Amino acid sequence: MGQTPQKWPGIELSNDDLLNKKVTQTRYHPRAKFSWSAGEAISRFLNELKEGRLIGRECKHCNKILFPPRMFCEQCFKPTSKWVYIKDTGTIQTYSISYLDKDAKRITDPIYVGVVSIDGAAEKMGIMHYFGEVTKDTIHIGMKVKAKWKPPLERTGSILDIEYFRPLKEGEQ
Predict the structure, then answer these.
(1) Full-model pTM
(2) Residue 91 pLDDT more than 90?
(3) Burial tier of 1 (Cβ tally within 10 Å: 0-12, 13-18, 19+)
């Protein structure tokens, strides 16, 4: 092993050396352009949301519909096999009543949020989302709900294309 020098060779630069242009330097501001992808499964999922549809992926090995979709099964680690459209209805698995808005400011009218297991997907496969048209006295675990979609021209390919999940009415599918 070599020895560590007590004093490094060369001259140490200071901020003043740079500010007073005692050193040759170049400044460059690249005009970098970039794009990103959410991946094959989530990109398709978001595109379908824009069209007002929910989609999952089938795992033939486990005989499950994965939602949100994934290109491989997290249980058996095998690739999923095909796209499957599923209903926009489901069941509340858990929920919370919040008196704070998304900026953590106190509000008088609560926000209801929780996890919905989607009908047609594997058991306990769901998404976290808002609930609407409910009160603290009417919302409950096990409640059947349906997606309330934004109008088609307002959709952007976001999970918020579903405004909220509302109680499923008698006889409605």
Answers:
(1) 0.77
(2) yes
(3) exposed
